Amino acid sequence: MNIVIIGYYGNNFGDLLMLKSLLSERRAGVVYTVLTYGDGEALKQQGFIRQGAITVVELNKANRWLAYKTVIKCSAIVWGGGTCFMDEGGTGGVKYMALARLFGAHVIYAGIGVDNHKKLKTRLILFFATVMATAFYIRDSASLLAVRKINPWARREKIKQSVDLAYALGTDDAGAGGELESAGDYIIVCLRDLQGYGEQSSGDIYSQLLDVSIRICWRLRINRIGIFNADAEVDTGVSRYAQSELKDRGFTVFNIAGSDIDRSMAYIKGARHILTARLHPAVVAYSLGTPFSLYNYSDKNKKFTAETQTETCLIERGAIDEFMPTYTVGVSAVATTQRQRAQSTISEIYRLLN
């Protein structure tokens, strides 16, 4: 049996979490291949990829025919989490999914989200995906409603609400990072490159978010800040900016590479607070009981806080200066349920493939 998993895997913290979760129940005797729109060489360095002897194919012109050949031979193809349908270029890998379906493979979308889908092209792609898919597991109720509006004729048992696949990784994974270089009290700041998002200038937003992080440090009487680079291909510039600005203001700063997911989770677990624009540091913080503040640069962030009933942790656009962080939180029953639902979804997917 050959299973292909496809997504934007490389250096992105959230995408790597979802891929590791999806591979957590891999079966003996099954050949796994990961097709990635991200940095294939970086993905090959991940321990869970090397230890699992998993083949990685980066989706580029040089590997085009290898990718097609892999898809044609597969028994199933799975889109492994994330916001994969949106006007800003999200097509859900539809050409590879369609090719696999044409040759008789199961097609599954697992733990996915839907963002802006006003363009006719996006809506048509999403409709086609719902028609050809064996199963659609959707991570939030707003995305589920959007999918059912696009294709109201799809069977209810085919299109289901699930949760973010990253929840499947628990506290054991957060403790697998080994001894951390920067022990002691600290907070974490994770900015995202916001070029192209919103009307307010990105520079103003970065500065305002750093001001919030400083207020958090004052409130907690902390002088140490970890700069979390959740995607080295996108966020390195803004992470360096944060590091420079906070150093100039007298803080002790250290770096956290999001591509090292076990250590990143360990840092999140040990932090007194995390301020982030990226979604998945907040997902992990919520799952582990770490207080967090999440900037609403994208609707997926707002959907997350709505699903988890953590709206007070959301920093609204245009209201950063008025935001009041939450400083006390623990692992809730809802977070525990989310983990169980993610694990159950992954188990169900593998049962479908047998």
TrEMBL record:
It comes from the Bacteria. One of its GO terms (molecular function) is transferase activity. Keywords: Transferase. InterPro entries: Polysacch_pyruvyl_Trfase (IPR007345). Pfam families: PS_pyruv_trans (PF04230). Residues 12-298 form the Polysaccharide pyruvyl transferase domain. PANTHER family: COLANIC ACID BIOSYNTHESIS PROTEIN WCAK. This is Polysaccharide pyruvyl transferase family protein. It comes from Pseudomonas asgharzadehiana.
